Amino acid sequence: MLQLFMNQIKKKEIKITDKRMTRFFLTRENAIKLLIKAATIGKGGEIFVMKSSAWRILDLAEVLIEESGERDVKVVEFGARPGERFHEVLISEHESQNTVVYDEDFLIVLPTINIPGLKQFYADCLPVKGNYSSKEFLMTKEEIKQMLVEGGFLK
């Protein structure tokens, strides 16, 4: 999405689905951290979910426009496609019944099937309450800019 928006800025028009849409953002470094954590801690069967911040698609577009220095860039909304969600859900209300907070960075969804010793391994972890949706963890424009700088997308 970042590269697409950056290319569209050069054409003076960013096309977004809907101004209300939100999406999670995961840097390459955090993706690697997630894989390493799952490989070293995982016992088998559980799903690791990294706690992530999210942004409104419109806020991302506006930050990229501001940082590009381009003038007169329009943001055009073309509407959601059938079945497209406004917000990403990493953990649903149903899944949260089997999800625990592992540490400050990770949530773990435990399988509903019985795997010997797995639930006991996570017995001291607190249960998650409710779903984990991108509409709940929105960054400010300044936080978006900072994350883009840290990720090497902006200078």
Protein described:
There is one protein chain. The protein is of the alpha+beta class and 155 residues long. The chain has a single domain (2-150), classed as Rossmann fold (3-Layer(aba) Sandwich), CATH 3.40.50. 34% of the residues lie in helices and 21% in strands. It has 6 helices and 10 strands. The chain has helices at 2-10, 28-41, 57-68, 93-96, 118-121, 141-150; strands at 13-16, 22-24, 47-50, 54-56, 74-77, 89-91, 99-101, 106-109, 126-127, 132-133. A 4-stranded antiparallel β-sheet has the order 3-8-7-9, covered by helices on one side. The protein has a two-stranded parallel ribbon with strand order 1-5. A two-stranded antiparallel sheet has the order 2-4. Strand 7 and strand 8 form a beta hairpin. Helix 1 packs across helix 3 and helix 3 crosses helix 6 (141-150). The chain is elongated.
Strand order of the largest sheet: 3-8-7-9
CATH homologous superfamily (4th level) name: NAD(P)-binding Rossmann-like Domain
Can you tell me the CATH topology?
Rossmann fold
Overall domain count: 1
Which H/E pattern describes the elements?
A: HEEHEEHEEHEEHEEH
Alpha-carbon distance between the two ends: 18 Å
Structural class: alpha+beta
Helix content: 25-40%
Instruction: Give the number of DSSP strands.
Output: 10
Question: Average pLDDT value?
Answer: 93
Text of the CATH class = Alpha Beta
Radius of gyration: 18 Å
Low-confidence stretches: none
Shape, per Cα inertia axes = elongated
Classify the beta-strand content into a percent band.
15-25%
Per CATH, the architecture is 3-Layer(aba) Sandwich
Number of helices: 6
Largest sheet: 4 strands, antiparallel
